[in-house]
# Entry
Amino acid sequence: YHALRHKTQNFLSSRYQHYLVLSLVSFDLLGIFADILIELYQCDFPDASPRWNNVKQGLAIAGLVFSCMFVLELVLCVWGFGWSYFHTPFHTFDALIILLSFTLDVLLHGILEEVASLVVILRLWRFFKIVEEFSVGAQEQMDGLEMRIRVLEGENRRLRARRLEGKGTREEAVDVERGESESLL
# Structure
């Protein structure tokens, strides 16, 4: 149980998962925009081909599939990280959007078309999820780079101290080891 939960946490925190969510959100947004464009086209040309209705139905099904995938991601996050997952306001708000969007997708599908437009607005929130995914990826890269810089700076100080031990006084070597030297070699 704990090993599976740990693997789930690792997966949910991985770069692969962030790119997967980014892709899902992007495709979902493309579907939303396609639906909006088709709706606008049908408003301008009411006698347009009835095939557009089939396309809209396909986009609605795809939107429901994406909503299900986001609900699955949310369930995995709660199971993997526990209720502490909601300590971040972004995660709390995102979870509310996911659940509300999913509920409206399921309950209002084909019943109240005007209220269902709220689903589109809620699903557009996922655009902000893209921004959050990018920031998480950038933060991961920054953390790795900062750690690498600290390691290299320490190695540089040790090498400079070792070099000065052969040339200068022991005090200069200690200053370099502490990073207090004025010159860079």
Summary: DSSP finds seven helices and no strands in the chain. The chain has two domains: 2-124, 128-185.
